[in-house]
Amino acid sequence: MPQMSQVLRERVIGMLTAGMSTRAVARELNVHFSTISHLQRRFREFHTSNWPHNRKLCVTTPAQDFHIQHIHLQDHLRPATWTAAATIGLYNQRISAQTVRNRLREAHLHARRPHQGLDPTAVCHRNRLEWANSHIIWRLAQEVFSSRMNPGFQCSGQMTDCTF
């Protein structure tokens, strides 16, 4: 059920202070009596119908949230740490990378996580290429071997052109 509006809460408090019972107010406004009871208890505790909530205040405005989303739509490989460093939130506070990730998740987007580890060298690239090439040859040899075992299998040498 949606939250009660401020006007409706004040109306409830007015009815209760006028002497109406909790059940009568609930019946009048077509809400559950426990809702009115909780509101009455909170009014007694805080002496206001607009009690404080325990949520943290947002550190970015909706315009900044849109800007964060727009930046990551333009550069989908951008890490959240770069965006956090470039964005200044409310009251001249820096925002954290986790805030950026939260805002992107709300828009069903994701930030790229920065690579952690050693960057591959030229030798690593060469070794990986040799490994991949040897396994391609091994894979083709395996297909040729399986085509001899299965006469209905035809392969032209390309991985995608194999037919049964």
Automatic annotation (TrEMBL):
<dbReference type="InterPro" id="IPR009057">
    <property type="entry name" value="Homeodomain-like_sf"/>
</dbReference>
<dbReference type="GO" id="GO:0006313">
    <property type="term" value="P:DNA transposition"/>
</dbReference>
<dbReference type="InterPro" id="IPR002492">
    <property type="entry name" value="Transposase_Tc1-like"/>
</dbReference>
<dbReference type="GO" id="GO:0015074">
    <property type="term" value="P:DNA integration"/>
</dbReference>
<dbReference type="GO" id="GO:0003677">
    <property type="term" value="F:DNA binding"/>
</dbReference>
<feature type="domain" description="Transposase Tc1-like">
    <location>
        <begin position="92"/>
        <end position="135"/>
    </location>
</feature>
<dbReference type="InterPro" id="IPR036388">
    <property type="entry name" value="WH-like_DNA-bd_sf"/>
</dbReference>
<protein>
    <recommendedName>
        <fullName>Transposase Tc1-like domain-containing protein</fullName>
    </recommendedName>
</protein>
<dbReference type="Pfam" id="PF13384">
    <property type="entry name" value="HTH_23"/>
</dbReference>
<dbReference type="Pfam" id="PF01498">
    <property type="entry name" value="HTH_Tnp_Tc3_2"/>
</dbReference>
